[in-house]
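Tokens as discussed.
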């Protein structure tokens, strides 16, 4: 498992260093969509223009918060991790298109929160960090309740954070 994790780490860490360095043979952000990794499905791999990100959880009557309008161009990778058959861990990895400070920021979301920390990702990429966030393997229910199966608790408490870290760090 550690060797597989290193493959994703290597692939993702080369993107900020190579993709936007002006080399025509360097991989693009979109090419990350083609990565074939065990127990990982890459759902989105796209370059987002400066100020263009709209959070998926934005309500129809809400305006895009100023934080997102100030976000520089970045590479957005959204993936689903399934280390076990009943796991469904969502993770987002954002990498600045330019001005990467060479550092990585892993974001938390507050205990059993169950959401991707888009504000934290935007803040991190604005400061030059590559960053990742996870929903810890579950989505927050409107009433604050969610499935309490033992396997889901193990995913939330242990697997999701470890998977986010091993699949996105460098």
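Sequence:
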């Amino acid at each position: 498992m550690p060797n597989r994790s290193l493959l994703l780490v290597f692939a993702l860490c080369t993107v900020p260093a190579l993709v936007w360095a002006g080399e025509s043979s360097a991989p693009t952000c979109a090419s990350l969509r083609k990565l074939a990794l065990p127990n990982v499905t890459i759902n989105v791999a796209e370059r987002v223009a400066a100020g263009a990100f709209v959070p998926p959880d934005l309500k129809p009557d809400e305006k895009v918060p100023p934080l997102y309008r100030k976000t520089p161009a970045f590479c957005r990778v959204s993936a689903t991790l399934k280390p076990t058959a009943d796991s469904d861990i969502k993770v987002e990895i954002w990498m600045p298109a330019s001005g990467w400070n060479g550092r990585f920021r892993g974001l938390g979301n507050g205990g059993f929160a169950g959401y991707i920390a888009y504000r934290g990702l935007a803040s991190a990429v604005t400061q030059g960090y590559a960053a990742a966030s996870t929903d810890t393997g579950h989505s927050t229910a409107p009433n604050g309740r969610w499935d309490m199966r033992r396997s889901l608790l193990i995913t939330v408490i242990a697997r999701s954070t470890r998977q986010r870290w091993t699949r996105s760090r460098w």
